[in-house]
Design brief:
Layout (H helix, E strand, L loop, with lengths): L11 E4 L1 H4 L5 H13 L9 E3 L25 H11 L3 E7 L16 H11 L3 E5 L9 H13 L6 E5 L17 E3 L8 H11 L11 E3 L23 H13 L4 E3 L8 H7 L2 H7 L7 E5 L6 E7 L4 E8 L5 E6 L11 E7 L4 E6 L2 E6 L4 E10 L1
Helix pairs in contact: 4-5, 7-8, 7-9
């Protein structure tokens, strides 16, 4: 265990919930681990393989310890963790701060936080998704998350604590002090453009809460699901690839963890291209992980611009169109702090098409299709 374990960048990985719901077993995770290690996903930073709810037996053992469902995980969690680690990946698991998990029939970690944390450490767990269901109404979420943070930090192993708190109980005022590393800040995402749009608009003014040590988690990515999956709460009508790309770019710009939710064993070439775009990922994983800020876009009331200071002398600039018609969007550099009198211009690099766009003075304008986006890295130069 490191003396100063921290999470300096948004975590990246894969989670079972969106696509597989409660239909999970050992073979699924073995096959996902193989694909993550061999398909290039691990090479671009996806490292956590997270077992969500419904993995455990409905009761604890005679010593009060959690135990895996023997039909689904016949060799137990430790053996699965060893295999995942052998692939150069890390393993995550799920629990809940209440008496039961959110699926209702499995034991939660309430009043067993320290023994469960020790057990997770013994199994080799690297990441704990910690949900917020079925805890006594008289106890605050803040106290319960502080309790599990203390338990994990006392377990003898570095374990990332991912709070699944849904943005309730004035979470933004206390979550960083609770010792968690990421926190779910919204209702569950659905595989629809409406859901993506609602989540983004609800979090644009919360960017100050997200940064190194504790990141605002806008939920699992639905990129590549296309309306499929076994989860009736998530699997809606699906999105277009244009919408999935915008979804991914927004999560990257807003410092959200990048946790894949589709079946990576059968993802399309376009889905793989979106999820492994190194220019987009590098913005999410930037050394400084600064929050972005929003600018109004000249030319369209349904469009907006996000600007993010990157390490060094670069900025990420994203143009987004939430409207139903193609929009002409203008960014005036004055709004970024670059006046015409400065004698400076911006060099644009297109992160989605991987090409240099030349030097721009005073403003930049582009057309954006409905629900689409453009993303650039910019560097200031003397004219």
């Amino acid at each position: 265990m490191q003396d100063s374990f921290t999470v300096a960048k948004p975590p990246m990985g894969w989670n079972s919930w969106n696509t597989f719901y409660d239909q999970i077993d050992e073979n699924l995770f073995l096959s996902i681990a193989d694909v993550m290690a061999d398909s290039g996903l691990a090479d671009v930073g996806y490292e956590y393989l997270i077992i969500d709810d419904c993995w455990s037996h409905c009761t604890r053992d005679s010593a009060g310890r959690l135990k895996a469902n023997p039909d689904r995980f016949p060799r137990g969690i430790k053996a699965l963790a060893d295999y995942i680690h052998s692939k150069g990946l890390k393993i995550g698991i799920y629990s809940c701060c209440g008496l039961h998990t959110c699926a209702a029939k499995y034991p939660g970690s309430f009043e067993r936080e320290f023994s469960d944390a020790k057990q997770f450490a013994e199994w080799g767990i690297d990441y704990l998704k910690y949900d917020n269901c079925y805890h006594p109404a008289t106890l605050s979420s803040a106290m319960l998350y502080r309790r599990m943070s203390m338990a994990l930090r006392s377990s003898g192993r570095d374990i990332l604590l991912a709070a699944c708190q849904w943005g309730r109980d004035d979470v933004y005022s206390w979550i960083r002090s609770a010792g968690v590393h990421t926190f779910r800040s919204t209702v569950d995402i659905q595989d629809s453009w409406q859901s993506i749009e609602e989540i983004v608009l609800s979090q644009l003014d919360k960017q100050y809460c997200s940064g190194p040590g504790c990141f605002n988690d806008m939920d699992i990515l639905v990129v590549g699901m296309h309306g499929g999956g076994m989860n009736p709460e998530t699997s809606m009508g699906g999105c277009t690839d244009i919408e999935y790309q915008t979804h991914f770019v927004l999560w990257a710009m807003m410092n959200s963890p990048l946790i894949i939710g589709c079946d990576v064993r059968s993802m399309s070439d376009r889905t793989r291209e979106i999820l492994t775009n190194p220019d987009v990922i590098s913005i999410n994983q930037d050394l400084e992980c600064r929050s972005c800020y929003r600018l109004n876009a000249f030319g369209s009331p349904d469009a907006f611009i996000l600007v993010k200071q990157l390490s060094g002398a670069e900025w990420a600039v994203g143009f987004f169109n939430f409207g139903e018609t193609t929009a002409h969007v203008e960014l005036h550099f004055w709004d970024m702090g670059l006046s015409l009198q400065s004698g400076m211009c911006l060099q644009f690099y297109d992160c989605l098409n991987h090409e240099q766009m030349g030097y721009q003075r005073e403003f930049y304008a582009c057309w954006i299709e409905p629900h689409g986006c453009r993303l650039f890295r910019c560097r200031a130069h003397e004219t």
